[in-house]
Amino acid sequence: MRLNLKHSLFLFFLSITFSHGQISPGDLSEAHAELEGMSNCTQCHDLGDKVSDRKCLECHKEIQTLVNRKQGLHGQTDVIKKDCFECHSDHHGRKFDMIHLDEDAFDHNQTGYVLEGAHEEVDCRKCHVSENIADAEIRKRKNTYLGLDETCLSCHDDYHQETLSNTCVDCHDMNSFEPASKFDHDKTDFALKGEHIEVDCKECHQVTIRNGKEFQEFTDLAFNDCVSCHEDPHNKQLVGQCAQCHTETSFNDFKGMGSFDHNQTRFELRGSHNQVDCFTCHASNSDPLKVLQDQRNFNENSCVSCHEDVHNGNFGQDCVKCHKESSFLSLRSMDFFDHSVTDYPLEGKHIEVDCKQCHKKRFTTPIDFSACTNCHDDYHKGEFKENGVSPDCVQCHSLEKGFDYSLYTLEQHQETEFPLEGAHIATPCFACHVSEDDKKWTFRNLGETCVDCHLDIHEGYISEKYYPKDDCTACHANDAWTTVDFDHNQTQWSLTGKHTDVSCRECHFIEIADNKANSEQKFANLDTKCISCHENKHDETFAINGVTDCMRCHVTSSWFPETFNHELTDFPLEGEHAKIQCSACHEIANAEGEIEVVYKIQKFRCIDCHL
């Protein structure tokens, strides 16, 4: 009714307008002049209500965008809370300025762009000009404050002409363009060190003219070698980079020892040669064109040119055949030497042994190789002695595979006092023969019963009647420890139905704190009632004198109530009732919509179940 009244009043005012002229509080501003007339009122006003922010922002979409993004003055929380007309009222005449802004008192921080440094002194119209606005539509407006970008290059010329990043504030601050107070040369690809720190920037970064404007080069400068900027006083007679010998502190500081890549010359330095001072081999000379050039024609394979021949020529002049450059006393593998011409040809692992391992003195000193123990210790400490004599190692070990490999076979083990059966055949040797105390292999007096090697976890838990003399084989076999062959009929509780498939642990091991590794065994005095192991889902529904006997309905072969007789209940099943599923009557939805199983139904009238 009230809505119809509003429409009636609106039509009444329209009729007055067309017959007696416009009813309005005043002329609209020049920006809104096209909205004059009663027929346009609802473009800004809600019918019978004030000016709507929603309608303002439908036209001023750029303001809506700032509000959505919470950017600029209109995106500030305090401004968003206000109605548009609180700051921008109209109907005050064509010349009325709807944007009341005191530029001198305006807090620019409210826009989200804080004025710092030199920006604080700049007149507003220096920045807020159409040339600095990227949006073509906003650029057409006069005296607008909208549309400016926060990036420096939206207002300033790119002095670097796109050769550097557009993020000017990485190097410059707001106080002045020069100097670039934030620039850190150490973060560039060429960190300044030594004398380079004192060099004026323009010495390396030349100021030129590009595209008709002053331009200073900061990129694409060659600095991979010193000769990119400095003259080469050696006239290219020395290979490599200058920094291998010289420092940035001073050209006269020589650091060539250990830094110069001598491998670029015709004499590659290896081993101890790397530790020799340069001027041990090269004559000292201050002339850049002659320094380190006196050995240019030296033969690097002629050791005796520098070193004394301690063998007096008996082994020829090819020293590197036996010696290494790391040390004169460090011999090579002597692969060139044919050991087969001796009384002891090298085989297997012996081929890889360094000569000095056997030849403790001179190579010509005789060695007794009649038995392995002449060189090797008896690891077994006489365990295999017979009549006081230990067998030679070659009976069980080979030169090809070393002492870690044994030639002892399974067939040989079967002839011992402990033939291997079942899982013992697949057990690695070390599992039985490596002592846990000293990690040493042993083969004697290991024991033959299960408990000699295995922990008896049942000790004190199982009666002697079923576990005579702690004999594990009463239940377990060698094939697998988890395989248990125990006749439960020996007990007072025979296993039937599904119970025959259950693991022994399910009934006889009680977990402590939900941790199978921490459990307690129980084999005697176990409760045989169903609820001692199984959850009583019926609670006290079927209890008689406080005791629920599951066997009245269930059997051990399944949970289905095979022995339950519905004829003995208060509602014997007859006719169609005998054909329907149990759930049709016994599953009932509660007030929360959850399904509950009700076994004892209190009402049996037809209307209680049927509509």
What order do the helices and strands come in, and which of them pair?
Elements: H1 2-20, H2 53-59, H3 61-69, H4 77-80, H5 124-127, H6 136-139, H7 201-204, E1 207-210, E2 213-216, H8 278-281, E3 323-324, E4 327-331, H9 355-358, H10 410-413, H11 423-426, H12 429-433, H13 450-453, H14 504-508, E5 509-512, E6 515-521, H15 583-586, E7 587-589, E8 595-597, H16 606-609
Antiparallel strand pairs: 1-2, 3-4, 5-6, 7-8
What does this protein structure show overall?
The protein has helices at 2-20, 53-59, 61-69, 77-80, 124-127, 136-139, 201-204, 278-281, 355-358, 410-413, 423-426, 429-433, 450-453, 504-508, 583-586, 606-609, and strands at 207-210, 213-216, 323-324, 327-331, 509-512, 515-521, 587-589, 595-597. It has 611 residues and is largely without helices or strands. The strands form four sheets. The protein has a two-stranded antiparallel ribbon with strand order 1-2. The chain contains 16 helices and eight strands.
